[in-house]
Each structure stands twice: as structure tokens, then as C-alpha cells.
Amino acid sequence: MDKPIYTITSPRNERVFIHAMPGHFISSSFHMNYYVGTSDIKHNHDVSVDAAMLMANYYHERGIEADTVLCLYETQALGAYLAHEMSRPNMLNPNPDNVVYVLGPEYDQMGNIIFRDNLRKLITGRRVILLISCITSGKTIERAMESVSYYGGSVVGITSIFSATKSINGVEVNSIFTDEDLPGYAAYPPHECPHCRAGEKVDALANGYGYSLL
Prior knowledge:
The chain has 214 residues and is α/β, with parallel strands linked by helices.
């Protein structure tokens, strides 16, 4: 696949960036005209630290406190930096006294998130931030919210690197990049995909982990 790759930097910090590749990509629920690459923010230490600062500022400015960051799609390293920023002193909260836990999900055979008995204490009665790389429709976040609710936790925040959705189930999405940063970005249900109607080949399968060429 010979496609141009665009680098998009955050206007709040030029060291924080994503990549965007035009084409015909499919996920489990949608077809997209761009693949949004977030690997540098998830796996590059320096970029992750700066990105976590941007994410944490949203919660500091609103006085939102959290106990646990639930990390989806390989965002545990980024989640650790976010937890660090959430728990350290800042101008609006100079004396924080809470510990912020970082947790990755485990899935059952039906794709539901489960928490083992030794980890339930990190969710039950806790204020939880859901962290994910990209949000298209919000279906993955909705399922995660349901799972947190089943275990007696409450979702106080949704944070993503890129999101095409502004809120999910009444909770505002805190995202570094949105579809406004990527003009022309679109996602379609499979039966409404203009690329398929035009007979265009699918370039790759895509999900929160990355993409696989076809």
C-alpha cells in the first residue's frame, strides 16, 4: 500500500502528534477513509509524557478526581503517565491525597471486560477514567462503561488520543485530537460505505492495536 502519511501536531504542544493515512479501512463496525496512527503517543516515552500532561489538564481544570485509569488497547504506559499527572500537586489542587491506580482489561469469551476478585477493589466504589487510543462511534467505550457499572464503579471521565465523538452516554470525551483536526475524516456503516459502492479495494483491517494490510 503506497499511501501518503500526514503528521498532525497538537496546537497545545507541538511535540504531541498523530499520523493519518488516507485510504479504505475497516474495523469491526465501520469503514473509514483514514487510518489514525497513535503509536508514538502510546509507545514513545517522551511523547507519552507530554500527551498525559495535556490529558490531565482537562481534569485539573474541572476539579475532577479519579481513583483508577482503565486502559484499553495498549494504553497502559500512557495511563501510568496520566495517573502520575492526576496524583501529583498542581495549581488547582496543591495537596492531592489520593492514589491513582492503572489497570488493563481482561475479556471473557463474549468480549465483556471482567475484573478478577483481586482487582475488583480497583473498580468497586471507585471513580474511573476510561483511556483509549481512538474513538469512532463509542461502542467500545459504552461496553467498558457497562462493565465498570456492573462492578460498582462510576465512570467520571473518558479520555482518548483521537475521537470523532464528543460525548458518550452523557460523559464528555477528553481528546487531544478530534475529527476537526483531520478535515474530511468520515466513518460509515458497512452498507453505506461509498468506497465499497465504488468498488474500491479495502486497504487494511484496523482496530485499536493498529492495522493489517490486505
